[in-house]
Amino acid sequence: MIFAAGLGTRFKPWTDSHPKALAVVNNKSLLQRNIEYLQQYNITNVVVNVHHFAEQIIDAVNDNKGWGSHVIISDESNEVLETGGGLLKAQSLLQNDEPFITLNADILTDLSISNLLSFHKSNDALISFGITNRKSTRNFLFDEHNRLYGWENNVTGEQKISIAKNNLRPMAYSCVAIFEPTVFELIPQRGKFSLTETYLSLAADHVIMGYEHSGDRFIDVGKPESVEVAEGMFI
Q1: How far apart are CA 23 and CA 228, in angstroms?
Q2: 1-97: which CATH architecture?
Q3: Counting beta carbons within 10 angstroms of the beta carbon of residue 75, is it exposed (0 to 12), middle (13 to 18) or buried (19 or more)?
Q4: What is the phi/psi pair of residue 103, to 5°?
Q5: CATH class name, domain 111-216
Q6: Residue 1 belongs to what H/E stretch?
Q7: DSSP string covering 147-202, please?
Q8: Radius of gyration of the chain (CA)
């Protein structure tokens, strides 16, 4: 699933008349690049959630025949639900016996999904997601084995600890995650909520792991000035 429903407020003025997922990096939209990224790992069944200028994304998918993938739209036109709520709304489209992956449309990376999946299975995790040691305003907190224990806001100093433990290591979230399908039975939140809330509410009783891939290419194309940097990284 590719999360493409956000308002993209950091990406104005483009998002005054377009969805951020259709912002262009070297002649390809962010959405196209992420669909093609998944194709590298033979992932061709993709759910895309839409809200902000939803019709533009739907038209782009249809006009380009999904860029070679089978794309299903999860329509959030009536209310943007954030990542957690968006995932829950798409449950019927994602339900399967196999793990599934989510990523944010405005993230570009060459994180190896094959390696992430192997890590996920070897740790018998409910959820595993990419992390790096880059600077970030917010971090997840992990023990020495990269199991999730908490979260902190580096600007406000706020912390949310799921399990009390000393010497936790702060790492930045890469927005690429693998879930076991049983997660839908466990998510306590409803309505509009972030996956961060879900991770923290489940971490005490379930194994949630961070897969470190520091050194891989990674960029959050969250602001217009990020495009030039992204174009230097992803041809």
Answers
A1: 12
A2: Alpha-Beta Complex (3.90)
A3: middle
A4: -155, 160
A5: alpha beta
A6: none
A7: BEEEEEETTT--EEESS--SS-EEEEEEEEEEE-GGGGGT----SS--HHHHHHHH
A8: 17
Q: Could you give the CA distance from residue 175 to residue 160 in angstroms, rounded to a whole number?
A: 19
Domain boundaries, the chain: 1-97, 111-216
Whole-model pTM over 0.85: yes
Distance, in Å, from the CA atom of 143 to the CA atom of 166, rounded to the nearest integer, reads 8
Q: Cβ distance 220 to 112 under 8 Å?
A: no
pLDDT band at 132 (very low <50, low <70, confident <90, very high): very high
State the Cα–Cα distance between residues 138 and 151, nearest whole angstrom: 7
Helix (H, G, I), strand (E, B) or coil at 21: helix
Write the pLDDT tens digit of every residue in 87-122: 999 999 998 899 999 999 999 999 999 999 999 999
